[in-house]
TrEMBL record:
It comes from Columbina picui. It catalyses: S-ubiquitinyl-[E2 ubiquitin-conjugating enzyme]-L-cysteine + [acceptor protein]-L-lysine = [E2 ubiquitin-conjugating enzyme]-L-cysteine + N(6)-ubiquitinyl-[acceptor protein]-L-lysine. Belongs to the NSE1 family. This is Non-structural maintenance of chromosomes element 1 homolog. Component of the Smc5-Smc6 complex. RING-type zinc finger-containing E3 ubiquitin ligase that assembles with melanoma antigen protein (MAGE) to catalyze the direct transfer of ubiquitin from E2 ubiquitin-conjugating enzyme to a specific substrate. Involved in maintenance of genome integrity, DNA damage response and DNA repair. Residues 188-228 form the Non-structural maintenance of chromosomes element 1 RING C4HC3-type domain.
Amino acid sequence: GAAMAAQMTDAHRRFLQVLMSHGIMEGSEARKLHRRCCEIHKVYYAHDKLDDFISTINSHLQPLFMQIRKGLSEGDGRAHYVLVNLAETEITKMASDYTENELELFRKTMDLIISSENGFASSTDILNLADQLKTKKMKKKEAEQVLKVFVEDKWLSERNGEYTLHTRCIIEMEQYILSNYQDMARKCYICHSLAIQSQVCDSCGIRMHLPCVRKCFRAQTDPRCPHCNDCWSCDIP
């Protein structure tokens, strides 16, 4: 905006450094870190000013095509902060970390997850793709290792042999996914951000994140779709 950007202090720099080393940070962690950085560097601290603190950092990151973004975890709806590189799409960024057939496996996994009803792909289905890769086929054992690495690097998360996109991946790749999966990617009816893990209305097809479903139907004994008013057919999480 027209207002002069607030000054970057050592507290801001430290916050940025720690976030960079984590890649993603849960809201309560970020609030603790905000406080700690201000105390260490004797900078004025206000407990409810984390977002202002971050926008100061963002105004200085702008020329570097970087940005700290806030997003919600699809599982529990908690806020997370992620440092995002705007200069290159995330798939290009991944290209420097993984081989071509690993990337192809990731893309195919992403296809499965995004086209699925509930936002998960089973390890069986993913491993079946491993020996159909165009770049270079992968053995099951090798593919299992690669999936492990994607989980460690916070691109995927795994629960009982089912894989979904990690919160960090969703926050970083939202634009990429919305533009590359236009026929399949859906936004949540309630919060309007990309919905991967979600429930779908049987009648009209709208999607809602699980935390948004919980909020929406909190006080309702007879949950109805907020769009078409038909009975909500999924179990409320």
